[in-house]
Design brief:
The chain is mainly alpha-helical. 70% of the residues lie in helices and 5% in strands. It is built from six helices and two strands; from the N terminus they run E-E-H-H-H-H-H-H. Helix 2 packs antiparallel against helix 3, helix 2 packs antiparallel against helix 5 and helix 4 packs antiparallel against helix 5.
Length: 192
């Protein structure tokens, strides 16, 4: 035995006679195919992350079209003088679609299971989207009321362009880190 090894009683078999074994202070990782099969490789994690990002982007593109369509429909009809209210309503419709799609497709392996966990996830999803909406609405507010760009085109660029990009980056990071975060996925990440 070396100086960093300590004797440890290790029961042999079904508890017959204990035997002595040496335990190193820093044991070597297990070798062979079983060791590499359990730990995800960097390449597999990158592929999984890229797939998740592409899925999130595709869902985001569909929800962007929903948001844009509902926003402009509202601006052309019942909310012609209310760009902020139109933006909030269009974002709510797009958010409901995004919730279902991201839960079912993008983050299906990380999502919560069970009533209490789903409520927690739904609450965090709503909070995240309110904050993301606040980012888009703030961009629209600054453009429309502070800078005085009041045309429909300027409102679309501010709310559905700049605001969308900033809000989307925030949402993806929050979904991944907080919202769709099962205890199983958290434990798996710490084992890797």
């Amino acid at each position: 035995m070396t100086r960093t090894d300590t004797p440890v009683l290790v029961p042999c078999g079904t508890g017959s006679v204990p035997t002595f074994a040496a335990r190193a202070a820093h044991p070597a990782p297990p070798a062979g195919p079983a060791a590499t099969a359990d730990a995800p490789t960097v390449a597999s994690r990158l592929r999984a992350g890229a797939t998740q990002l592409v899925s999130f982007g595709a869902i985001g593109a569909v929800c962007f079209l929903i948001d844009l369509g509902v926003y402009n429909l509202l601006r052309a009809t019942v909310l012609s003088d209310g760009p902020i209210a139109a933006k909030i309503l269009s974002a709510v419709v797009a958010t409901v679609v995004a919730w279902q799609a991201n839960r079912s497709i993008t983050f299906r392996s990380q999502r919560q299971v069970g009533g209490k966990e789903t409520l927690r996830e739904g609450f965090l999803f709503a909070v995240t989207n309110v904050l993301g909406l606040g980012i888009a609405a703030a961009c629209l507010f600054v453009s429309h009321y502070v800078l005085g760009f009041t045309s429909t085109l300027a409102d679309n660029v501010a709310g559905n362009g700049v605001g969308l990009v900033l809000g989307t980056a925030f949402r993806f990071a929050a979904y991944k880190a907080l919202v769709f975060r099962s205890t199983d996925a958290h434990a798996k990440e710490h084992l890797a």
